[in-house]
Write a structure and sequence with these properties.
The chain is mainly α and about 180 residues long. It is built from seven helices and no strands.
Length: about 180
């Protein structure tokens, strides 16, 4: 998945540059393509930068006992309504090895889950930054739709992490009582 993200970022950047060049060569349909690929580039590149930056700071060492990571009273019913259990297995993972119990303890996996949650929360917020592009370029509805869809996509990963973490913490507590 990491290679695909980097390839998507590089490809969308390259296509943005190509269409900007075509736009300056007076190709009328190139401008909307440049905006589209530029927005795609932003979303892919921003995800890579946010993930890298937070990883440099946290190093998968989040304290999952902190209040931010604790389940709220409404979450279980929300996840049932959203049917998280049905679709979570089909979600892509940037680095699946971080969540592999053969390579990491449940404690390490819970910490990585907290970090992944933070990454996706920050990305969801930053997904709305391209709305500023509507000021010089217009097409506010297009920028709004892509921002909302992007944020919802990342919030689905937040929901998945928050859905799974209580089960992982139960495993951690079970291991501690056995020892």
């Amino acid at each position: 998945m990491a290679k695909a993200m980097k390839l998507a970022a590089a490809s969308s950047f390259l296509l943005t540059m190509v269409f900007i060049g075509l736009h300056f060569s007076n190709v009328t349909w190139a401008f909307p393509c440049a905006i589209t690929f530029g927005t795609c580039f932003y979303h892919f590149f921003m995800r890579l930068v946010v993930g890298y930056s937070i990883n440099c700071k946290m190093r998968n060492r989040a304290d999952y006992t902190k209040p931010w990571y604790q389940p709220r009273s409404f979450e279980a019913s929300l996840y049932r309504i959203l049917q998280v259990k049905k679709w979570k297995a089909g979600m892509p993972t940037y680095n699946p090895s971080l969540f592999d119990p053969k390579q990491h303890s449940w404690d390490e996996i819970a910490q990585a889950m907290c970090q992944a949650e933070i990454v996706h929360e920050v990305i969801a917020i930053l997904s709305f930054l391209p709305l500023l592009g509507a000021i010089p370029f217009g097409a506010f509805p297009v920028f709004l739709i892509t921002a909302v869809l992007s944020a919802l996509f990342d919030l689905s990963f937040v929901a998945m992490q928050r859905f799974n973490r209580p089960r992982i913490i139960k495993l951690i507590n079970k291991e501690r009582t056995v020892k």
